[in-house]
Amino acid sequence: MEKLSYASENGTSAWSTYLQQIDRVAPYLGELARWIDTLRHPKRALIVDIPLQMDDGSIRHFEGYRVQHNLSRGPGKGGVRYHPNVDLNEVMALSAWMTIKCAAVNLPYGGAKGGIRCDPFALSEGELERLTRRYTSEIGIIIGPQKDIPAPDVGTNSKVMAWMMDTYSMNSGTTVTGVVTGKPVHLGGSLGREKATGRGVFITGREVARRAGIPVEGARVAVQGFGNVGSEAARLFSEAGAFVVAIQDHSATIANPDGINMAELTRWQQEHKQILGFPGAQKIDEEAFWRSEMDIFIPAALEGQITRERAERLSCKLVLEGANGPTYPEADDVLAERNIIVVPDVICNAGGVTVSYFEWVQDMASFFWSEEEINARMDKIMTDAMVHVWHKAEEKACSLRTAAYIVACERILMARKERGIYPG
Ligand SMILES: NC(=O)C1=CN([C@@H]2O[C@H](COP(=O)(O)OP(=O)(O)OC[C@H]3O[C@@H](n4cnc5c(N)ncnc54)[C@H](O)[C@@H]3O)[C@@H](O)[C@H]2O)C=CC1
Ligand SMILES: O=C(O)CCC(=O)C(=O)O
């Protein structure tokens, strides 16, 4: 295989993690493995320079990206991340995980992802809006409702999606609601989208826990990340009778062996934008989090969190990957040796993109569904996909991650093969 000149060869990078996951699935793909190099290359990657006039009158330049990893099964789909660590390597990996995820749950999409290297918390609302609008115009040449449909990810939300939709619409001369998902509900957004990713983590977790004989009621749950994904997953587990005993975010790690009150913490988080200072739990050391007594662990922050060393320390029976790419391949091996089940990101956190798909369909039809209908359809898609992957893992005697990759890669590579590659 040709080496990609733009991807760091650092073995701990997100792209390197993804490539190792692809290497692991290749032996299971039979004659389709002939096409697998298509997954080792992004189809298209755009780097944009975003000049921004700051509130104090100075000019700063930000680097933005949109990567379309694979479009064999449909338009690109994937979120937009605003974070100080965003770079091309990370966005490539995130876009590739979208390709696998959309195929694993059988949505008619390829994979894409975007981002801007910035600290959204250090920008005023006006700066954030100008940054978003300029970024949208710059990537406007490759996005569109039939080409590539962005959505929220870390550091972005429905307000950012509204600005993206408005900018794309202004540049097109007509309102195009279907260009992004995760919009506010009164602007063509879908009921249930905001909570969908956390809800999907709970649905897949509940299904796997039942099959593995791990009771959810009374389970001790630890969560890393208390944003969109982590907070909703924690709330649903707590509602199902589990005890959320430890939570870590960027500001602090807190613990309460009797269970943290989710309603109180949510109110605190909404007011303070972080868990630091919450009076209903004890502040503990950052690394002590990984030694907490727990039955279920939900990483719901960033990639590269579960290292080999942390995998050796974790006391849980089940890991539910709310985040994208939280586990290094060598940590996967340690968890497997220790009989800790990992529900991989590409299926566990697919509830968000599933409801994004519903949003896109509703925008196309200009006909909107009730929240009950959305949640019921999402529950069915996620549960069926999870059960399919579970059976594949039993059949092939492999991990749930490799099983999800087998299911997804067969769909993607079959599409690639049937489409053919000529004329170029
Ligand atoms: N928002 C969505 O619909 C989807 C998000 N995801 C993934 O879920 C993860 C979380 O995304 P969101 O909840 O949307 O983001 P968010 O921006 O709402 O929340 C991120 C959370 O991670 C915490 N965090 C950041 N750095 C940390 C660190 N070094 N240590 C501990 N905690 C840290 C933040 O404090 C915050 O609580 C990401 O990996 C994202 O790609 C996956 C599928 C869909
Ligand atoms: O809702 C979407 O379209 C994409 C969400 C996303 O970025 C993800 O699943 O990682």
TrEMBL record:
Positions with a binding annotation for substrate: 77, 101, 356
Name of the molecule in the record: Glutamate dehydrogenase
Residues that hold NAD(+) according to the record: 197, 228
Family as reported in the entry's similarity comment: Belongs to the Glu/Leu/Phe/Val dehydrogenases family.
Listed Gene3D superfamilies: 1.10.8.1210, Leucine Dehydrogenase, chain A, domain 1 (3.40.50.10860), NAD(P)-binding Rossmann-like Domain (3.40.50.720)
A Gene Ontology BP annotation from the UniProt entry: L-glutamate catabolic process
Function: Catalyzes the reversible oxidative deamination of glutamate to alpha-ketoglutarate and ammonia.
Source organism per UniProt: Pantoea latae
InterPro entries for this protein: Aminoacid_DH-like_N_sf, Glu/Leu/Phe/Val/Trp_DH, Glu/Leu/Phe/Val/Trp_DH_C, Glu/Leu/Phe/Val/Trp_DH_dimer, Glu/Leu/Phe/Val_DH_AS, Glu_DH, NAD(P)-bd_dom_sf, NAD_bind_Glu_DH
One Pfam family hit: ELFV_dehydrog
Marked site (Important for catalysis) residue numbers: 153
Keywords, alphabetical: NAD, Nucleotide-binding, Oxidoreductase
Active site: 113 (proton donor)
PROSITE patterns recorded: GLFV_DEHYDROGENASE
Reaction(s) catalysed by this chain's protein: L-glutamate + NADP(+) + H2O = 2-oxoglutarate + NH4(+) + NADPH + H(+)
UniProt signal peptide: none
Residues in Glutamate/phenylalanine/leucine/valine/L-tryptophan dehydrogenase C-terminal domain copies: 190-420
Molecular function per GO: glutamate dehydrogenase (NAD+) activity; glutamate dehydrogenase (NADP+) activity; nucleotide binding
